[in-house]
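ugh ok fine here u go
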Amino acid sequence: MKTIIISLVLALLIMTVPKTIFSQISDDDKIGLFYLLEEEKLAYDIYSEMYKKYNHKVFENIMKAEKVHQEHILDLLKVIDINTDQYYKNPGEFTNKSLQNLYNDFILTGSYSLSDAFRAGAMIEENDIKDLRDNFSKTNNANIKALYECLDNASQNHLRAFVRNLKREDINYSPQVLSKEDFDLIISSKNKPGNCFTND
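structure:
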């Protein structure tokens, strides 16, 4: 029911946006959206596997959010008439080779132990945050910026969740991708609404 409401709100938002706004989207915007769509899929696919392996609630909760985030990006791609036929829907398959390699690496890392799965999750979220912020800085489209900011908030929530779970096992996680300053700011902050247009 929650997912249906989110989709309806997103659809309403998109319908109220003038078409001229979407006609101004650059090729870089389109490439960035498609890359981030696959990056959200990578997170969903890995967390699904980790949930099957360890049956830990954190993977179940976050994988559900990642699925919704994929739907948000897909909805936007459809509105701006981007063909998504090349988008692999099979688990563990990606058109981008670097993401395919990351998936393979993270699946292997997460298979060693529950703690390693938490570490893999934290690194995935760090990568997401960095890529979202890089693409945010490159686009001039307010609607894409709003979506990226929402997904950034969600990834921060997820990063905090994985770091908390590592802390419970007496493991102090150090940032692998983000600067220590950015990482510390995220970890010291409270959770924010993270599933785009409703509270997560």
